[in-house]
Amino acid sequence: MEHVNGSSQKEIRVWCDGCYDMVHFGHANSLRQAKALGHKLIVGIHNDADISKNKGPPVFTQEERYKMVRGIKWVDEVVEDAPYVTTLETLDKYDCDFCVHGDDITLTAEGVDTYHLVKKADRYKEVSRTAGVSTTDLVGRMLLMTRNHFKQGSSKLGQDHSARSPWTGCSQFLPTTQKIIQFSDGKPPKPTDKIVYVAGAFDLFHVGHLDFLEKAKSNGDYLIVGLHTDPVVNQYKGGNYPIMNLHERVLSVLACKYVNEVVIGAPYSVTKDLMEHFNVDLVCHGQTPIATDVGNIDPYAVPKQMGKFILIDSGNTITTEDIVERIIRHRLEFEDRNTKKEKKEIEVFEAMQRVKLAEKSG
Asked: What is the pLDDT of residues 174-183, one digit of tens each?
């Protein structure tokens, strides 16, 4: 087995764990960084009961969360029902060399760092958290559902309370070409590949999207996903959508193991030029209603005329609107969760700062 730096040694197995609720590109980015530190990435996921006790109610069920993490391209194995506090016994049980987590903090209901045991044993490594996104922030966006929340520079982005925590306080996500390259496979289709094309908003990437993309990919070899711009999504979904902007949606879709390529800002109507440019063999759409384009035009008229269009049924009926409904229905619980989580984080952060000051003055 060749090591990541080129030297020959045993396979390095990396452990990550967490809630992975509303899996977003921030989670995916931390898992990407963790995978780069070894050969195999094993991800432990906490159950609903432990999350509710220590953090507050999860948005997704444990079964949905297990499936979502399995769908991330850098994940090799998923361990269900992982303990909330990471122990050396857990690392040894799954033959993992060390544990990796972001540079934020995770606390139990009692305010204890969930990684204190592996840190003490020097079997812990840290990666940078992706600034500008967190589950807390996304929940906040849905609680607000403001009409302009996806516009750059919106001062209210995600702030359902005055976010002051250094870990989940809101900061604007700044997309770069480097980040897209890191998430992309960068592999063109082979001449013999059957190319499948799908398009949509893919807002708040969820298990409904995942099942649909898996089904679409099964109809060919190379899957291209066209992502509509924010104004286009806004036009057919309504004034409150999309919740995630185009750049955020691009990374969320690229992190999916079934996706080979993304068209950023794809036209709403699938054109002949697009079909020819990408050598598309088949265009798929799910069971959701298809809104007509400007002028009452069927956006799939061209691939239908070419005999290259099919409707597919993924067997999953969950939509982005359903996820938002979950949040709105339990609004008070989630607002309370966000407030408590932030308060706890601020207390720990301030205590850490006091220790640092004491060490300096000492």
From this structure: 678 888 899 9
